[in-house]
Amino acid sequence: IRKIALFTGGGDAPGLNAVIRAVTRTAVLNYGWEVVGIRDGLDGILSDRDDGLMPLDPHAVSDILPLGGTILGTVNKADPRLYVVKDGRVVVTDWAKNRIRTQMARFGIDAIVAIGGDGTMTIAAQLFEAGIPLVGVPKTIDNDLVGTELTFGFDSALDVATDALDRLRTTARSHRRVMILEVMGRNAGWIALHAGIAGGAHVILIPEIPFAVEPICAALQARWARDAKYALVVVAEGARLADGAPMYHEIGGQKRLGGIADWLAHQIIERCGFEARAVVLGHIQRGGSPSAFDRILATQYGAEAVHCLARGEFGVVVVLRCNDIRTVPLHEVIGRQKLVPVDGTLVRVARGLGISFGDPAE
Ligand code: F6P
After folding, report:
1. Is the four-CA dihedral 342, 343, 349, 350 of positive or negative sign?
2. Does residue 186 line the site of ligand 1, with CB under 6 A?
3. Tell me, what's the ipTM?
4. 238 C-alpha vs ligand 1 centroid, how far in Å?
5. Residue 356, φ and ψ in degrees, nearest 5
6. Catalytic residue among 40, 43, 142, 144
7. pLDDT tens profile 131-160
8. Is the distance from the beta carbon of residue 76 to the nearest atom of ligand 1 less than 6 Å?
9. Quick check: 343 pLDDT over 90?
10. What angle do CA 84, 88, 94 make, to 5 degrees?
11. How far apart are CA 257 and CA 262, in angstroms?
């Protein structure tokens, strides 16, 4: 290997720049390789634009460790020539595979580091099968990627959600209100569960445990009866009623998960008789500086990705298992979502503390 490229795909997450820095420094300082960043997901290598590749060296990445977002840019809506969706499956086109191979030969790129979530890893797995030497790095604030105990970005998002609950507590208490915080996570409840425990929420609603309004009212009434006349509810954007589907809203003609906090506030006002307010935390969870933990995790992932390439270990993702950085084959992490185990330790601990999950069986 003489030259590698890296790209960031899908939604951004705190820690992306820490990976870019670690990959660059490890590649240059340990192996003497050249490094280029591909701009805007894979668009920078697929398109004919002149600025698609950004040369990277230790100097170029010297100040980006604490910076949120990604200096390379990222896209959720990739170049339409990259893949088609067949029977719900993302299938990378032959055009894109050929184009990437041709561009790699043209620019002398020997291997690629793909930094992203499930969507990016699905594309990376197909590129690897098409003969492109590549290693994946798992990113998402949702922490829902299988194969790894943690994705970077999750811890920073959790800090933001916990801080929001701390702030909501003082205003909830002053006004004797129910404050409902809606957090991200797609169809997984990791952010909601962890933030709910860290922020001392009284009700936690996650997609893995479908809820009903009655047990929530009962939990709130019990608090009011104890003269603790305020409550914090954290609800995952993908949470759903026991007999319902997740809630969606539309932005610019696109269907997006969310809106459940507002709906729940109305239910609590009407059915439980308490004052309630909804707060949607949204993309604040994805912005800003990564936590110290995420900086360290992202740095370890980036460094190990480069060592994998040096060993000729391609088609793998670097992961965290038992506090150690390891690798698993790309095909093992795609097409599935890591959900919160409903009888796992954290849920049991939370139930033991008297936290309600709005579970009809409570
Ligand atoms: O996967 C990360 C995530 O932030 C989810 O938690 C959320 O549902 C989604 O991305 C939001 O995506 P967008 O950036 O397209 O609004």
Report:
1. positive
2. yes
3. 0.97
4. 11
5. -90, 140
6. 142
7. 999 999 999 999 999 999 999 999 999 999
8. yes
9. yes
10. 25
11. 13
Average pLDDT, the chain: 97
> Considering the chain, what percentage of its residues have pLDDT values greater than 90?
96
pLDDT of residue 362: 86
Residue 276's nearest CA partner among 359, 172, 170 is 172
Known catalytic residue at 40: no
Cβ(211)–Cβ(239) under 8 Å?
yes
pLDDT in tens, 277-288: 999 999 999 999
Question: pTM score, two decimals?
Answer: 0.97
- Whether the CB of 141 sits within 6 Å of ligand 1: yes
Query: Can you tell me which atom of ligand 1 is nearest the CA of 238?
Result: 8
Task: Give which of 38, 297, 333 is closest to 152, Cα–Cα.
Answer: 297
**pLDDT tens digits, one per residue of 72-104:** 999 988 899 999 999 999 999 999 999 999 999
For ligand 1, is residue 139 a contact (CB within 6 Å)? no
